[in-house]
Amino acid sequence: MQESDIREKFEELFGQLPDVIAAAPGRINLIGEHIDYSDGYVLPFAITSRTYAAVRKRSDRQVRIASVQRAKTVITVNLDDVRPGFKGQWERYVLGVLWALKIDQGVDVMIDGHVPLGAGLSSSAALECSVAIALNHLFSLGFDLKALARLAQMAENDFVGVPCGIMDQSVALMAKPGYALLLDCRDLTSRDVAFDLASSGLQLLIIDTQAHHSLIDGAYAQRRASCDSVVAKLGVQSMRELTLDRLEECKELITDNEFIRARHAVTEIARVLDAVRALESKGFVELGHLLNSSHISLRDDYEVSCPELNTAVDSAISAGALGARMVGAGFGGSAIALIKESQSQEIIRKIEISFESNGFKPPRFLTSLPSQGAQIIQPAR
Ligand code: ADP
Ligand code: MG
Fold this sequence. Notes:
Blueprint (H helix, E strand, L loop, with lengths): L2 H12 L5 E10 L11 E2 L1 E14 L4 E6 L7 E4 L12 H10 L6 E7 L9 H16 L6 H16 L6 H8 L4 E6 L5 E5 L7 E11 L3 H19 L9 H6 L6 H25 L3 H18 L5 H12 L4 E4 L5 E9 L3 H14 L6 E5 L6 E4 L3
Parallel strand pairs: 4-6
Antiparallel strand pairs: 1-3, 1-13, 2-7, 3-6, 4-5, 7-8, 9-11, 9-12, 10-11
Helix pairs in contact: 2-3, 2-4, 3-4, 3-5, 4-5, 6-8, 8-9, 10-11
């Protein structure tokens, strides 16, 4: 969809033009998986696919919300009913942002999301952040991007009820084209790291396995509990303070299962910093190796992969990718492969064939260069 389409669709549905149109991207975390809650680092970048939000002020306290992805059915809510505990569906992501930003005037909101929903590319943060930046602009709220990221996270945590970290909202708002965002989950400081794939003829292939295994919630809680237990038994603040040597020395104090979980956390934290060094020296072969090691660690030590993700990663590598790994919480969702642009079609074909021969649902593919964070596209009139 062209950016101008949402303007027309808004007018068609709500009878007037929007005051503002904003967009925010989905994201991929290049490396640093399952370590945000261990005081680790993450290295996400914005993908090209974005979610658009068009907003118009109203003169009453009604909020009307529609999404192209939800058949443009208009949901009408009174602002007085917008508080945590609100029973609803997807519109809670929009209402949560209105609540977090303390909006006190009715609005019409239309959403058009081009980030695949539920594929681990954070369509939820793209949605929240497109709405947040539009409202910040429209009501001249003056929040900076860091504050907006916290407010969008608050919307998802406290209004929608999803206990997500700050990564998705930070990158959706702050990403710069050609850069990844190194985010320190201990103190939430961040810095841009040049991630220029295009000039080296490279590309990130995103493989949406379309698999969603129901193990995820219980497994996530168990992984977190194992990390908490290791930290308590070894008397440290977080995995960040441990090294692999120290962990080996203390092996007797923890269970075998805790040891392998901790080994993932400790090695993954180190891999993020190695990946930053690789990017800074354009060492893409090294980056590929780090992606592979990350996948093996998530598969064998953290045990959060699944056959579809392993097939995507293994077939990408055997077809010539420099490296590949599962991304996100695991048990389904997407994988990424660092590939030569010229090999894209060939690698896609090989992955498709592997999926078919394993009897898996066909995967979907996206490619992306590191893109722009949230933007106002059409300012208030
Ligand atoms: P992810 O963030 O990985 O895509 P989530 O489950 O966190 O997956 O968020 C997906 C949910 O966000 C959807 O089920 C829906 O409720 C909401 N959502 C995201 N984008 C849109 C959209 N364009 N229109 C309607 N709802 C959306
Ligand atoms: Mg999400």
